[in-house]
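Hi R.,

As promised, here are both runs. First protein below:
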Amino acid sequence: MIKIADLLTEDRIACNLDISSKKRSLETLSELVSGHAEALNPGTIFNKLVSREKLGSTGLGKGVALPHARVEGSATAVAAFIKLAEGIDFDAFDRQPVDLLFALVVPEHFTDEHLQILARLAEMFSDTSHCNRLRAADTPSDLLELLVSWDNEQTRDG
């Protein structure tokens, strides 16, 4: 099973960003995801995330969104996470503003893995107390620690 620690690094996490639109949040996530991976182009990732959003919002509700896409040229699954200073309209089904965004980009051939990771993320972000701890965190390192520790606890307990 792929773990959060395998997907995310501190340099792909941003904290308390001042972003006012869904489009800008997807641009920021695309830039973070592409980060140091030469094979991943931020423009390509952005276009894939936008295309996926056109199929239906990835806003889960309760202030959380999981934008995701499959991208050719990606060798492995990679993620980025941002915590916004203020929630934005993300067309979530519950109409609540979104302030926690976890973007996932997987290789084109990652069909089962893609769904397994999304299910795991949906489980994590349905944990209200965990989301509250994320919202209280003030640094990318604190956010990474919270995300990884939740995943490790679930793996140990499960």
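And here is the second one, sequence first, then its structure tokens:
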Amino acid sequence: MGAGRWRLLHVSKRTFQKGVHTIHLPSSSGITLNAHMSGRLRIRGDLERAAGKEMFPLPDDVCIIPPGLGRTLIVAPKGDEPATMASLTVSLDALHRFIGQEDLQLRVARLRDWYPAVRFDPVLAAVVKAVAAASEVGADDLYVQSAAQFIAAHVLSPPTAGSARSTGALSSRQLETVLTYMRENLGQPVSVDDLASLVSFSRFHFVRCFKATTGSTPYRYLTDLRIDLARKYLESGNDPIARIGQCCGFSGSEHFSRSFRRIMGCTPSQYRAMRA
């Protein structure tokens, strides 16, 4: 573990080797942010305030812990490479410096109402990473003060009316994350829960937002991508049809044939014959 300490900010970094690790983040009087730094990482959060679980696998997700609340995280690096997570706490002194006492109490109470707060926030994630890096090279007080002020204002501001969650749609970045995952795993089992966890949504909320954004359900969209891939295999090679279906993520020949006919209007063998 690497760590850096300033008066207004405290930063720590944890590197996890392959396996499952349980870490406890104790409550503090300030605001604590947790963000992915490097490697492939999946995190499950067990809340102390209320029963529940969440998944935070995205590099641009930030887990926000309000003052006075703690959290236990179960961390599992994906693959054989180690993964690193940064934890940053903005001290109560820093919060009082930038925000008046009465206003601060109202904003913190609102933040507690949002808890558990997992925010898809590329800007905040980048700031956490930058501050973690700066702590290792001895950044000066001006840097620390500016970073603390920005974080306090950014985290404690009310959510904008145009956010993806309030409009019922995925942001362009969230959509690209989900579609990239689909494309990279066409030959593997992919569940709606897997996709929902990529953007830290519940299953129901994700399906609704995905359909509002694309006009299609996640399952139908994924099937369309698989059929497109199967068409390329059918047009460009002589692999057995059963093997093509397997490579494209279908559970069996019948499933592949039925899905292909529903979308293309013909069976895979008929399609290959027409394209020969």
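A quick note on the second one: Strands lie at 2-5, 9-16, 21-25, 31-38, 41-47, 53-55, 61-65, 71-77, 83-90, 117-120. Let me know what you think.

Best,
J.
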